[in-house]
Recover the amino acids of this structure.
């Protein structure tokens, strides 16, 4: 009986450890997925390094946002970023040149991109 | 010893990888094309990944191109995508600014006229997306004022950010569109604008959720650019 209890307690600890550990796992996976998605979809205008100087930038009347600009980026909430990406610049009274990606990317993919944006602007990568 | 850039290495190894996938029913004349192009529907492609896509898919060529354009272009190909098939593969950053690495854009192989006809005839039989074209049957080509069309294309819809509507003006990440009408079937243009992902799940063109009127106006603008009556 005591053995079973100990065993149960141990497996509980193990489960807790796994649960705790996996809390951290997806977060780092998100940054990588986000980075890949950023390269595919955003870099054409925002640039491979996110500074707003993509190959299309010289042809845009309104300059794409510099995503490495910490002072600008910390003024935006995740909700605002989500809206801008999903519904386009117009939805937040910015340029129509920033497209709506909500019909192209899933909510999860957009969240991954935001996770990457946060790392890009505000963490040392 | 020559050192090849990593990008080239990736392109070559992908080409090698892809060349092992031989689609059923590919005629002799088109076998060499498969070192770069896919004639297979996506489920059968090794793993669809934009990061190593070196050439546009051709498995729906018969729903996309005009036969006459194919015959001409295959004999004397010119660049369609100013920054290659996947721009990030052909983009370099210098002093914080991205530019297209022109040297990485390899000129397309040309074929003779008999081969071009044979290839075009076969490519035109690849029509797995006929129902997408049929769904756009209510489009009747018309013309628009070039000035208003350009304003819509650049200012209101933002297409000019990624596409050129003249050889000098527009973004570089999408295919040139001043030749779109000569190159593409009208139904394809309309359908692609409506839902790029229905044609290519890896398309990096945004779906702007436009209605018939908006889509037809933009398509008419592309027709107007061609100068055709």
């Amino acid at each position: 009986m005591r053995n079973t209890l100990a065993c149960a307690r141990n497996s509980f600890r193990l489960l807790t450890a796994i649960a705790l550990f996996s809390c951290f796992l997806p977060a780092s996976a998100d940054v990588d997925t986000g980075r890949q998605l950023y390269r595919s979809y955003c870099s054409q205008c925002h640039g491979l390094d996110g500074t707003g100087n993509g190959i299309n930038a010289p042809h845009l009347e309104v300059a794409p946002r510099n995503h490495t600009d910490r002072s600008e980026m910390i003024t935006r909430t995740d909700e605002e970023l989500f809206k801008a990406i999903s519904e386009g610049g117009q939805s937040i009274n910015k340029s129509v040149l920033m497209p709506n990606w909500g019909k192209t990317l899933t909510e999860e993919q957009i969240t991954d991109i935001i996770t990457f944006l946060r790392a890009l602007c505000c963490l040392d990568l | 010893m020559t050192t090849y850039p990593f990008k080239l290495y990736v392109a070559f190894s992908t080409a090698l990888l892809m060349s092992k996938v031989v689609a059923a029913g590919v005629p002799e004349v088109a076998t060499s094309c498969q070192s770069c192009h896919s004639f297979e529907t996506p489920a059968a492609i090794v793993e669809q990944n934009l990061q190593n896509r070196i050439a546009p898919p051709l498995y729906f060529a018969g729903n996309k191109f005009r036969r006459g354009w194919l015959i001409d272009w295959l004999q004397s190909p010119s660049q369609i995508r100013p920054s290659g098939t996947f721009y990030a593969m052909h983009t370099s950053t210098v002093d914080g600014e991205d530019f297209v690495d022109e040297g990485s854009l390899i000129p397309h192989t040309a074929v003779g006229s008999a081969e071009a006809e044979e290839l075009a005839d076969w490519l035109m039989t690849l029509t797995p997306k006929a129902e997408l074209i049929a769904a756009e049957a209510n489009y009747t080509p018309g013309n628009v004022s070039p000035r208003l069309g350009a304003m819509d294309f650049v200012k209101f819809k933002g297409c000019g950010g990624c596409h050129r509507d003249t050889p000098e003006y527009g973004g570089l990440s999408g295919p040139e569109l001043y030749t779109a009408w000569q190159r593409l079937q009208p139904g394809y243009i309309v359908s692609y604008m409506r839902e790029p992902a229905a044609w290519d799940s890896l398309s990096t063109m945004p779906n702007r959720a436009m209605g018939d009127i908006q889509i037809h106006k933009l398509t008419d603008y592309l027709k107007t650019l061609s100068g055709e009556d």
User: Anything to note?
Assistant: Residues 2-46 of chain A form the longest helix (45 residues). The domain at 2-122 of chain A is CATH 1.10.760.10 (Cytochrome Bc1 Complex; Chain D, domain 2). Chain A has four helices and no strands. Residues 32 and 116 of chain A are 7 Å apart (CA to CA).
